[in-house]
């Protein structure tokens, strides 16, 4: 566990919500932490104070007890006997949900599967000891918890204050706002979705260096880089293959950073790996002519329309780059003739209209990719800032659009 805390005793380790904790104080708090009795897993529920969460995680690791981040004590007690052997951390994925009173689905991993990626990421991002590293979301989200532990492993300061930080970890959605801050960090480590050309351009104008990576809670880091068109290379220590699958080529990875598997109240499931040790979460990618791999999105988010398969996130990225579009999401809804038709839901900038956006979309999308129905409304989001696709799909497909949804219309006048 000492490898997670490498700062000098008097250096600031954590600065959250006005609380400042130095490395010496943090180490003593970890030693003194009161964990639940017994030897089972320790729950760390959503909404836990950030400093308390970090102390609990480190105390569990120090004492050899798995810590389930995002599960309360009752859920941890139920999941504890089901955890794969060797589990030290349990993490929820960004889209994990569970019925009230039920334990969430957890991704089980070892501490080393995270710690071993610390040095390669620090080198890619140019992170150094005593940097101030900001996170832009809650720590029960795995990418933000990793960012804090990573900072501590370098001897840096982890903080929730973006202004004045050297580096910030953010999703593209959060970064859209951060780049407008007067004292924005000089480097942004971006993950969670594709970064659009417009956002890359705005960051460049502000002198902000973008280090992008693709990964998943089950796989950890897979691809990373600073490609101007979103082309990423294999993260150091990771072997990547693209394998044919319905809808495109599936991204498969083999590395020491893979999780052990997943667990919920029905039991544990080993991470699905082939006979060579490669695993995937179903995301699709394409190899670029100039080198590198561009991530297209989740294969199960692909839309089959008029006999063609359209990756939803590919269309979303092109729509989000259009003038007047703050954010975009697309989904497929059943259609008697097409099988599915593409529906677009967009957040509009002030003064923009759906008609303008639909007209501009014809210039960047093929006929099969072009949405047949359009809505304008704020997009529901998860705690990590990603689009809450299930909630959005339910709202659109239920026929009850709710506040912010105008009546469905095709701005070009064609039949919806």
UniProtKB/TrEMBL annotation:
Location of the AMP-binding enzyme C-terminal domain: 314-386
Keywords: Ligase
Presence of keyword Ligase: yes
Region of interest called Disordered, as start-end residue ranges on this chain: 85-104
Keyword Ligase: yes
InterPro entries hit by this protein: AMP-bd_C, AMP-bd_C_sf, ANL_N_sf
UniProt feature, compositional bias: Low complexity: 85-97
Pfam family, one: AMP-binding_C
Family according to the record: Belongs to the ATP-dependent AMP-binding enzyme family.
Name under which the protein is recorded: AMP-binding protein
Organismal lineage: Bacteria, Bacillati, Actinomycetota, Actinomycetes, Micrococcales
